[in-house]
Amino acid sequence: MNITSKRKLIQSIILSMVINGAIPMVVYNLLLHYFSSFNALLIATLIPLADNLYHLLKHRRSDSFGLFMLTGFILSLLAFMLGGNERLILLRESLVTGLLGCIFIGSLFFSKPLIYHFAIRFSVNNQDDMKGEFAKNWELPYFRFVIRIMTVIWGITLLGEAIIKTILVYELSIPAFLAVSQVVFYGAIGVAILWTILYRRYAKKRLDLLIAAI
Predict the structure, then answer these.
(1) Helix then strand then coil, % of the chain, to nearest 5
(2) What DSSP character marks residue 67?
(3) What percent of the chain lies above the pLDDT cut of 70?
(4) What is the 3-state secondary structure of 93-141?
(5) What are residue 132's phi and psi, to 5 degrees?
(6) Which of 148, 159, 174, 184 could form a disulfide with 101 if both were Cys (CB 3.0 to 4.6 A apart)?
(7) CB–CB of 67/47 below 8 Å?
(8) Which of 62-66, 107-111, 191-195 has the lowest average pLDDT?
(9) Do 113 and 151 contact (CB within 8 A), yes or no?
(10) Would the pTM count as exceeding 0.70?
């Protein structure tokens, strides 16, 4: 990843944190002067939902990643329709994250887990070439092991993030939770991404040695 790509990625993450964390917190505190705490929170949480819908419509794909994002959005809508008290509303996002983590782990029981498809989807190289290379490498037990380990780690990360935020929502005040919830989310995702990068480098070196020995 070159410097320009890294800069764009960092800018995208910061913008998402502002939209999904800072702005809802500000809106919630402003609306408290005019609405009940429940209604103010309900309106504030519409902002990240609208952001998710915008990105889904803008970047829709007819592949596994697009279907994954669509699933997350549908789960968000279902959770939104359930309503509930203030704490349950705050738990909607964690419910979705936890369910998506279960999808990651559940994909291990299919012929190829999610990470296999995601790796092709986000490849900077030609995706058709990557499909051929991945299909060839899939015949190697070590390659299958690496893909499945990555899928497990991402599933556990999403489930862990959901559990942590479920605990925090009952331990913190609503303004405090709105302030730290996105930090928890992006912190967990950031650690998972860093681990994936480092583990991928290690696994690629070992895979190259195995291929060379064949």
Answers:
(1) 85, 0, 15
(2) H
(3) 69
(4) HHHHHHHHHHHHHHHHHCCCCHHHHHHHHCCCCCHHHHHHHHHHHCCCH
(5) -65, -40
(6) 159
(7) no
(8) 62-66
(9) yes
(10) no
Whether the CB-CB separation of 114 and 121 falls below 8 Å is answered with no
Q: Do residues 161 and 102 make contact, with C-beta atoms less than 8 angstroms apart?
A: no
The amino acid at 106: G
By the 8 A CB rule, do 28 and 178 touch?
yes
Query: Quick one: tokens of 37?
Result: 């705490």
Q: Are 163 and 191 in contact (CB under 8 A)?
A: no
Q: How far apart are CA 114 and CA 116, in angstroms?
A: 5
169: tokens are 């929502």
Domains contained in the chain, number: 1
d(CA 200, CA 37): 46
Domain that holds residue 196: 3-213
Type of residue found at 140: L
At 195, is the pLDDT very low, low, confident or very high (cuts 50, 70, 90)? Answer: very high
Task: Please report which confidence band the pLDDT of residue 77 belongs to, taking 50, 70 and 90 as the band edges.
Answer: low
Query: For residue range 81-112, what is the model confidence (pLDDT) as tens digits?
Result: 666 566 777 777 778 788 889 989 999 998 88
Are 89 and 83 in contact by the 8 Å Cβ rule? The answer is yes
